[in-house]
Amino acid sequence: MSSSAAPASAPSLVSPLDAVTLRADFPILSEQVNGHRLVYLDSAATSQKPSAVLDAEREFLTHANAAVHRGAHTLAAEATDLFEDARAAVADFVGARPEQLVWTSGATAGLNLVAYAIGNATLGRGAPASARFALAPGDEIVTTAIEHHANLIPWQELAARTGAVLRHIPARPDGTLDLDAAASLIGERTRVVAFTHVSNVLGIVNPVAEIVALARAVGATTVLDACQSAPHLPLDLPALGVDLAVFSGHKMLGPYAIGGLYGRAEVLDALPPFLTGGSMITTVTLDGAEYLPPPQKFEAGTQPVGPAIGLAAAVRYLDGVGLANIHAHESALAERMGAGLREIPGIRLLGDAAGADRVGLWSFDVDGVHAHDAGQVLDAQGIAVRVGHHCAAPLHGQFGMTASVRASTALYNTEEDVDLFLDAVRGIRGYFGVTGSGEGAA
């Protein structure tokens, strides 16, 4: 049986990262958009995929496609091996062991899994081990004011179901989290602290160690949204000390419909399952069932085998380039982009915190021009950005806005991409006949 579905890694590169060379690995970046070469600055929404990822999933479907953990035939055994090899590769990428990585369809599914599992613990499911997660009326769930909706709404729903109180760590005007307020909010009734590693609107890397320390001091479970950090900076989830963390494959060069939930072993062992059905059980009677240990306990039904293999190819590619090299490259692009935007009249940057560690992402307002109109001007020149509230409406409300323009970079972006983008932004207000100096950076 062919073993060609095993993905190859990208060659190791030395710093500084050669983004011009890397672009050749991404077929879509050779496309023309509206008569211009594509300048893709929307990787925070979804990243582009290198050929190694596209080939890995296709090779699996062509040569080894079969149901995993079920069949006794050769093809099923090979598919299972590739699937579990993929788990080991992705787990290693975030510093974890394979049994600490649960496959999900993405970060949103992972966060809902955790929230609903805690709700099941509150109902007494999984007792006695899961009793540690049970919520009582008046217990507190703490998030932050800068969260993506995926790390806010599941906790709103859990609070509504259990009588828990949802509280929020506020952000300062520069977009950094107010740790003094966090210290006062996280107290003896706090049971869950859920927060983002990197804001998808602000690009700021948040102080994980400080927040984890506050949560640990009161015995709260920590849940980290690592969607915007996993593809951009070295990530060791056990070293960060969080109890649980989620990430999405499509934001880290991988396929759609695949993501991961990392958990400390004792946490995953104690959490009751959320989805139930085939493949996650040991024995079943008409009156009850016993469940497999993690991660299979949380993987009911047919699994995303091809996407998992594609994600493994993606993390091998990222490892081959080097996350430290990627972070340095994108930080330089962020500095170049931020400096250029600050010089353009009428541009207001969000989260322009002096000295903050950040990824290559900026959101901004164009004075006198709606974000969607600004995005259309950029798109006409082949420049892809995100416009809207980026699934973070409360954060935009804090800035007195309903929408912004977001430009986000990845390892395949170049200085030329940034300069073309800045040239296009300079022309937005003039295109709409808006005059005046505008508000400037804030």
From TrEMBL:
NCBIfam families associated with the record: sufS
GO biological process terms on file: cysteine metabolic process
Species per Swiss-Prot/TrEMBL record: Microbacterium radiodurans
Stretches assigned to the Aminotransferase class V domain: 39-421
Protein name per its UniProtKB record: cysteine desulfurase
E.C. number(s) listed in UniProt: 2.8.1.7
Domain of life: Bacteria
InterPro entries linked: Aminotrans_V_dom (IPR000192), Cys_dSase_SufS (IPR010970), PyrdxlP-dep_Trfase (IPR015424), PyrdxlP-dep_Trfase_major (IPR015421), PyrdxlP-dep_Trfase_small (IPR015422)
Keyword terms: Pyridoxal phosphate, Transferase
Catalytic activities: (sulfur carrier)-H + L-cysteine = (sulfur carrier)-SH + L-alanine
Pfam families to which the protein is assigned, alphabetical: Aminotran_5 (PF00266)
